[in-house]
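idk why but the lab printer keeps eating my pages so im just putting this in chat instead. protein + NAP:
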Amino acid sequence: MREKVVIIGSGPAGWTAAIYAARANLDPLVYEGAITDENRDLGTLPLGQLSLTTEVENYPGFPAGDLSGYLRTALDNEHHWLTDLHRKEGCSGPELMHLMRQQAMNFGARVVTDDITGVVFDSYPFKLQPLDGQEVEALCVIIATGARANYLGLESETRFKNKGVSACAVCDGALPRFRDKPLVVVGGGDSAVEEADYLSKFASVVYMIHRRDELRASKIMQQRAFDNPKIDIQWNSIIDEVLGNDEKGVTGVRLSSTADGSKRELEATGFFLSIGHTPNTHFLEDKLEMTEKKYIQWTVPFRTNTSVEGVFAAGDVADHYYRQAVTAAGSGCMAALDAERWLAAQ
Ligand code: NAP
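predcted complex ->
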């Protein structure tokens, strides 16, 4: 089996690459990931991180709320007929991902529900080894396997995922359950400050729980945390348990002091992890140039090229910095255009 373009991954980057590659007559084959217990535990099932969130309010074109009502007020009379096409509430993360998948399939993308577990990039055509099935040859590969948020690994954390536990303040912070309520952010890096600062717009107070007595965040971000009257940093503290119940979800946290071992509890309706991400690059076994933290290194400025010609990377697997659905989709488009031009030049 020899393919022109194989896309590995099924988040916004993967599907956007598939839409563009299909419309360029490259007949893309998408490995969307396998449905396994391991992937479920890691948060790496098909359709990526967005499929683990609830509402998506920041993806352009999908405002939250009643879309038909919104369109009636937003459009002039001549275009009111458009509201007939939209009879539902705004989009959830899983819905958005299913729509992208369907859009790619409408243009002819073929989808295999399996993981790629090994790659051969030092001979050409490239070879890809699926978890279950026959090796595939590819003239061009786009890797869009994303990254996964790190969690502490507490049982209570898993229990309340989507019921107050989140690893993305920008995705979930504005939900009603977090408004005017105390919230917790775990971590002491730039992301934790950014998330705490963002959440402080909605919360009554944001407790930043950090395990040491100084932040890892850059000085300017540290100052932002210190200057924000709604951010209360709890130094030298680790989380013992997320507290809550089935009805209310998260209601608080139990902390331990790393200084003297003492315990205390804080009330909170939200528990936001900001302790870093892990890129899904294990299957590459360093066959591409990686950053120190194992993200794929883009090797040409403003392009999606990797260290192997004919292999491109898109989305969070190569981007630890922006990590947004819309930036991932944008780089997925870029990867498909880069792949198309590279194939044409061969
Ligand atoms: P990071 O810099 O690696 O910080 C992770 C934080 O989580 C650290 O404070 C770490 O504590 C803590 N942590 C890790 N594992 C933990 C655990 N098991 N229990 C408790 N705490 C734990 O990650 P990041 O903040 O996501 O930033 C990633 C990169 O993006 C950085 O290069 C950052 O500069 C950049 N970034 C920049 C901006 C900006 O400039 N506006 C915004 C966001 C991100 P320790 O400090 O004790 O290790």
